[in-house]
Amino acid sequence: MLKTLSHSSSRLLVLAFMLLTWPLVGSCQYLRYLKELNPTMAGTKPIDHAPYDALLKKYVDEQGMVNYRGFRADSSQLSAYLTTVSNTLPNKQWSKNDQLAYWLNAYNAFTIQRVLRGYPVKSIRQLGGDKTLVNTVWDQRFIRLGNDKDKVCLNDLEQRLIRRRFKGEYRVHFALVCAAVSCPKLRREAYVGSRLNQQLEEQARDFINDPAKNKLTPATAPQVSEIFNFYPGDFKADDNTLAKTLNKYLTGPKVDADIKPTFMTYNWALNEQK
């Protein structure tokens, strides 16, 4: 995830700045983020996410916190599911919801796998370097997709695939979980195409009304998750605004339409059950 930079400027401007100021040695690492990722595989049908669903129900609690020690004991089952994911890429015959459910599950499950490979750890950020788009844990290419010899990373899935292919679907930011306390809660079930809209609506409502993620009083000066600062453009498509997004899902008093929020400090501690 591109979460070690401020996202108040456009992503392209950030990348242009990097190209001008960073040493050439790192350029091949981050130039790929300018290109869309479009893996596909003819003849496949939507996969059964039940094995992953069972693991989530077993090792994730109601607060979305993860029992990584338990998950590690069942790591072979997680690996088997991810092998199915790698070997069964979506195609245009899949419904859009089936495709998005597949990629959301893939991102979250591969994130868990990466944590397990480095566990125990206090923060997922400790598993990588500190150069955004170059060597953070989200830039490590350990994910195989189909028969492609070039592996991809978590940033590839989020930045080059999900955010581009499903442009305008800002609810993905309430479903993608980067293994940190300030991330959205990891859902205790897999995403499935037949119920995806309901699941994303529940994720959005839960995240926005969670006082640990957003402090929305007073209405004139709320404090909101830094996720809204990381991806400001994603919440402005089709005349949308941050205030409209918040008010759509708020169960309490609405925020003012012209709010100028402050952003809460992101807590990168591992989302681990205590």
Automatic annotation (TrEMBL):
Q: Which PROSITE patterns match?
A: PROKAR_LIPOPROTEIN
- Where is the DUF547 domain positioned along the sequence? 92-208
Protein name per UniProt: DUF547 domain-containing protein
